[in-house]
Amino acid sequence: MSVRSTWRGVVRSPLGITALVLVSLVALTALFAPAIWGAQAERVDPTAITQGPSAAHLLGTDTLGRDVLARVLVATQLSVALAVAAVIIGVVVGALLGTAPSVLPRWAGRPITTLVNIAVAFPGLLLALFFAVIFGVGTTGSVLAIGLALAPGFARLTQTLSAAIAGRDFIAASRVVGASRLRILFRHILPNIGEPLIVNATVAAGSTLLAFAGLSFLGLGVQVPAYDWGRLLGEGLNRIYLNPAAALGPATAVVVAGLAFNLLGETAAAALGGRSARPQRRPRTTDSPASPLAQVGGDDVVLLVDDLRVSLPTPSGWVTPVRGVGFTISRGEAIGVVGESGSGKSLTALAAAKLIEAPGVVTARQLEFCGTPLLTTPDRALRGLLGTSLAMVFQDPMTSFNPTRRIGSQLAEAASEHQAISRRDAAVRAVDRLRAVRVPAAERRAHQYPHEFSGGMRQRAMIAMGLMNHPRLIIADEPTTALDVTVQRQVLQLLAAVRRDTDAAILLISHDIAVVAQTCDRVLVMYAGRIVEDLPAAELHTAARHPYTRALLDVIPDLDTDRTTALKTIPGRPPAPSAFPPGCAFADRCPLASAVCRERDPELVSDDRGRRVACWHPVTGDGPAAALPVITTALPVTDQEGAVR
Ligand code: SF4
Predict the structure, then answer these.
(1) Ligand 1 centroid – CA 526 distance (Å)
(2) Is 586 in the pocket of ligand 1 (CB under 6 A)?
(3) Could you tell me where the beta strands, DSSP code E, fall in 344-448?
(4) What pLDDT is recorded for position 613?
(5) H or E stretch including 171?
(6) Which of 455, 507, 529, 604 could form a disulfide with 323 if both were Cys (CB 3.0 to 4.6 A apart)?
(7) In angstroms, what is the span from residue 596 Cα to ligand 1's centroid?
(8) In 10 A of CB 476, how many CB atoms?
(9) Looking at the predicted structure, is the pLDDT value of residue 190 above 90?
(10) pLDDT score for 286
(11) Would you call 587 helix, strand, or coil by DSSP?
(12) What is the pLDDT of residue 178?
């Protein structure tokens, strides 16, 4: 369903029709009433002072004999204009306050957040009165007062919406290509929070009318000779026992206009909500030729990681979910990192891409990308290197792109950010790269929005974005998890082809050991924030020595798996980062665990063939994994020395 048809459907609903009729009524009155009834509203008639309703004056007259109905209609323009102006001030100031913490340095952003939190705690009308006293009585003062009183609410809304967007993959992708905070804010965050802000602003306009009526009623708002509904309401209430209609008229106008704005907001929310909830198309399953992986070796180290540690604050203190990880990736090499959720594999990849921000802390003996130390080189100097030489492919193809911008322009931005290339050339290159990753009708597709792409196509486009420059390393974090099996295969084949054609290294993060075994040269098995085994992918099924690796292999279903029984799982759960034991973290789930395992954490040691394993009792001997000791639901009993009984 297109955006236009979604809007059409909502607008044709009873809610939409009512909102449109009321808003049109208010707008037309505001536009034309002064011209039609302006003279009548100003005409003083000493012979008709303070009259009740009559055929000549449907709502009666005021103390100067002026027609109340005409004045109510004419006051529409000023009342609506004031409400709109105050809402604009509230939204703009609120958005500035709400987004400032994400643009400014931490020391400057924190006081703003605190200020907003304090201001939100005050009732809006109290704030409006406070500002009205500061700015003084009158039209300008009341607009500023109410506008600024609205700002904290919009600031909080902006902060919340921005925080939700900031965690999305396309923001991380922009940071990888080196986009500045300001650019990310204007190009990616604001366009994505604009819709809910507008909806809330429309709803706020209704309550703003009431706030103006309140201020004018208290004598702090519009002053003589100007008049709005609030002032007319105040005048009417003074004579309510003589002529109730004089108060009823402006009160009804406030209610109708407020209702119109509220219903308009509800209509917009329904349309936009319906649009975002639109079902996604199934990923296409077009065939693409197989591209067997090339066995590429090389001494050129692209990524050097030595004793990497990532620490994060939690309410109960700091935890270190990545503890001393070390590995290297050379040009053209594909390394797979496997492990259960929470093993630290994604955090390792994010640290390698410099995507872990404060308050997270990354330390390492060495963390180098293409020979450049990532932890000591200034961000500004790193931006160009990471932007041109590192590509990220994220897990969720739904969040990999900014949904408000066309695919082609997002790809083009990745190139124009770091290269002296014209917008036109960048667009041409974007189409070329889409073609390279086998996106059909690439030229047309480049003009489409992310939601018009299937999941598999979006992942292809993400890879194409990485190819806009000349990546030396592609980090793919669970790139196929959200895809069906056929599309998964195509994406893996595409990554393999890219590696073959560009000689880029690949770091593939996956919880699926079978995918990694088929795709990579080497496999790193992670458990509880550490690498527990590192071995060639070709030897995974025959030479894995760590009981955890064996367990991962054993639970993979194959064609002979009995489909009438439950799938095998590894019993137990990995320990939480806040509760890593002093010994081997796998001990509670390991059939070979001994006393020494529970007391001392085994080092990751290398054998003469460069394979590494961290285990006090590694499984020895070649042979099929299934023939070797593996985890079962009934754990074998071990003696003090660790021998299995
Ligand atoms: S044998 Fe010991 S050291 Fe090895 S995985 Fe099991 S518990 Fe850990």
Answers:
(1) 14
(2) yes
(3) 361-363, 366-369, 372-373, 390-393
(4) 92
(5) helix 169-176
(6) 529
(7) 9
(8) 27
(9) no
(10) 35
(11) helix
(12) 65
